[in-house]
Design brief:
Distance between the termini: 52 Å
Largest sheet: none
Number of helices: 6
Number of strands: 0
Helix content: 55-70%
Strand content: under 5%
Radius of gyration: 25 Å
Length: 145
């Protein structure tokens, strides 16, 4: 193996994907066929690892496997697909932005609920906003589990 080539173990360590997942990505056409040395051992180059890094990000952000496969196919078709690749990524970006807005709204709702419980604890009240009389219950209410 040359100094520019990485083993599947190296790529696994760099990307966080297991060896089995890397093999699955390859078998599903999600990464271009990985060259092998004379012993049949996969040899990844930097361009391949960069593609895997991008695919990990696309998958983590919810891109369907079929769209990832389309993207990889377009990459293999060269510069003539730049516009289509850009459109695919722009559409996915819009999906990510929509999910970010939803997550921000969800986070706000969680923060409101945390504030509600903080107020109840500070006031020594139950969920009906009635005073808690039992000292053991007050102690338990204040204890994070």
């Amino acid at each position: 193996m040359t100094s520019n080539e990485l083993s599947i173990a190296d790529v696994s360590a760099r990307t966080g994907l297991t060896r089995d997942t890397l093999r699955w990505y390859e078998s599903e056409g999600l990464i271009p066929a990985v060259p092998r040395n004379s012993a049949g051992v996969r040899r990844y180059d930097e361009a391949g690892v960069r593609m895997i890094d991008l695919l990990v990000r696309l998958r983590r952000t919810g891109m369907p496997v079929a769209a990832m496969r389309d993207f990889v196919t377009m990459v293999g078709q060269g510069a003539r697909t730049h516009g289509r690749r850009m459109r695919l990524l722009q559409d996915h970006r819009e999906e990510i932005e929509s999910r970010i807005r939803e997550l921000a709204d969800d986070l706000d709702a969680v923060d409101v609920k945390i504030g509600h419980y903080r107020d109840l604890i500070d006031a020594g009240q139950d969920c009906a906003e009635q005073p808690i009389i039992d000292p053991d219950e007050l102690d338990e209410q204040r204890r994070p589990h």
